[in-house]
Amino acid sequence: MIIPFIRERPAYVLLLLRDSSRTWYISSISRETGLTYLHTMNVLTQYYNLGIIDYKKEGRKKIVVLTDKGKTISSLLGQIMDVFKEE
Q1: What's the CA angle centered on 52, arms 54 and 20, to 5 degrees?
Q2: Is residue 33 part of a domain?
Q3: Residues β-bridged to residue 65
């Protein structure tokens, strides 16, 4: 589904991160969304700078988690996507 004012794959990153039953690494997000690793890093860097995500270290790997602000934004984005699915 294409919504003119929302870039689909970067939005999908936020929707993926809502699934807290999985541990999200940069590489797993990249695979799941179909974005290149570099593009995934750029998107996550922007989200980090906006305070939407945070990183937790697990050895050499970084786990990507939503902040409270990110959870709110992701929830609202999910609601917007649901409205467009209804049409």
Answers
A1: 65
A2: yes
A3: 54
Number of helical (H) and strand (E) elements in the chain, helices listed first: 4, 2
Is there a domain that residue 87 lies in?
A: no
CATH number at residue 53: 1.10.10.10
Element (H, E) at 20: none
1 is a domain residue: no
Percent with pLDDT over 90 in the chain? 69
Distance of alpha carbon 3 from alpha carbon 23, whole angstroms: 28
**pTM for the full model?**
0.86
Tokens of 49: 């700078």
At 24-66, the pLDDT tens digits run 999 999 999 999 999 999 999 999 999 999 999 989 999 999 9
